[in-house]
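To fix ideas, we reproduce below one chain and its tokenised fold.
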Amino acid sequence: FTRVARELRSEDLPVSSAHVIEATRLAHTLAALRERPLPGLAEVTEATRSVLCDGDDVLLDLVTRRLVVGEALGGVPDETPTVPLDADLQARSKTLRLKRSAVDKNLDLDLRKDNDLQRSRLLHRLALLGIDWARAATSAVRSTGTFRESWTLRWEPELSVAVVEASRWGTTVESAAHAIVLDRVWRPAISLGEVTDTLEKALLADLRTAIPDVLAAVDAAAALDHDVLHLMSALPALIRTLRYGDVRGTDLSSLGDVTDAMLARICAGLPAAATGLDSDAADALRTAVDDVHIAIAVRDDPATRRRWLGTLRVIADRDDVDGILTGRTVRLLRDMGRIDEDETALRVSRALSVGSDPGAKARWIDGFVGGGAVLLMHDQSLLRLIDDWVSALPAQDFVDVLPVLRRTFGAFAPAERRTLGAVVRGGERTRSTAPSVDTERGARAIRATALILGVPA
């Protein structure tokens, strides 16, 4: 009971000596009632729950885990024979100062440091082998860079068995991870998504000798997969691997060729794939379009961007495509500056014109403004077009389109909804009360900024 009190006090819980005395008395009383000479584990557990833990099973589980089961991890002498893979893992762990422990240990890695980079490679290779010593975690340090990784390490006794099972792939961690990657990518009937996922893991594990074979498998899987949606789902992962490769120093020049070839197939097949879709398929394709658009922006290649925006322009000009897709492509083209404000207003007005089905109009608006209200907040002419259309809807049509509109505008942030409501209610008064622009102060700020940057104002 004294040890229990010490453990609970270490967790900042109020436990006094009176609790220990009363728990001891209760344990002896329970033993006497059960006609036992001394309290056993059952009596001690019940007394701990009632007195020291105040009936809280969570605290009792903590005490049981630490004192009854224990967290000490045993070991074997170094001269004990073992499989070569385990010997290599132990040597690598000792070199990288990774100690096996039965308690969780948080590990933050900075991939710009050589030791942390070597640790990251080892943990990713173990994950490929199914040895789950480390789990990806969220770092307490806020960072948007790709040079930081966070892990939670915990060695379970059954992982020793996993090491023995993985030893059939190789005698070292690197060779075993290399062998299992090649086995995965060349399995019959493997999908393109599975190959690209394996490629991403192989790059994180820095299996450079396996990369050419994995890239060949990606190219073969892409050539056999005729589903444009599958190609679009795989493309962002490929571009992410390009991004990781820049951090880890891996040569990915051949991956760029595979990505370009896949994008060419996507651009060629997307206009045909966008026709004749039901609502669910159109929603899935819209999500894929957004993912590819973000990935292309991350890659920042002018030729790739031109090809992609040209494909979006073709979809935006067609009349046989679901409204959520045409609305979305118009929005993306507007954000990228490929169409101006006047053309955008004309397309919105045409989409909301008389004669179209109200449900189709609502889906067009969902695709156009879904995901953010910044455009409507800054372009009040478009907001007035949508407001006038909603205000002029007959009662039954309004009821029909309300679920779609509620989903669209309900996804906006609370601050965006408040701003849009103020603009709709205030109209011109909202703009008239805005502060005037002081051009002289702005000019001084521009001159100072130009001086700092060393450019002519």
